[in-house]
Design goal:
The chain contains eight helices and six strands, in the order ααβββαβααβααβα. The chain is an alpha/beta fold. It has two domains: about 60 residues, Methylated DNA-protein cysteine methyltransferase domain (Double Stranded RNA Binding Domain, 2-Layer Sandwich); about 80 residues, Arc Repressor Mutant, subunit A, CATH 1.10.10.10. The chain has a four-stranded mixed β-sheet with strand order 3-2-1-4. Strands 5-6 form a two-stranded parallel ribbon.
Amino acid sequence: MNDQQVKHLAEAIGSPPEAAVAESRRRVQGWFAQTAPLLRWDVIESPLGPLYVAVSDRGVYHVDFGVSQADFLGRLDPLARTEHDPAALAPITAQLQAYFAGSRLQMDLPLDLDRLTPFQQGVLLTARRIPVGTVWTYGQVARAIGNPRASRAVGQALGRNPVPIIVPCHRVVANDMSLGGYSGGGLTSKRLLLHLEGALLA
């Protein structure tokens, strides 16, 4: 059937009644509300600027800073529902605020890393074990996951960390002990976090 035939058919059938369209939309919205995952989120002020946090029913799903609210929401799962819910995130934002205040530098929050590959998850969970006030190199992380030649892949996995600060990828530096890179706001943010934790004095 060509475009002209489709046009004639549409004209012959006519547009569906408004009530039918409204009912169809209602059903789609109902289905979406029942099946789409829910991501709750909140924002707090921090030395890094507004810090956004989203959680799923499994744990912390995404942390972002140095971006607008629209950019933050745009990086979440497009198939998920999003809901601004400060009360639901209160235990999480309290730990983050304590971290920035210097009264709690190690966090024990549940994480949702299901969308990452097993390798990426392994890298991030290893980075999470780096003690406060210390730094590891990419090579050290690679050896800790049993793949000593994977320094570059480790760096790439850390660069995709969806939950910075909670998974402290800022504690990983280049193999020559320079700061390396930091996708979470650049090296200025990395220095600030390492100063806060006492790992960087100069």
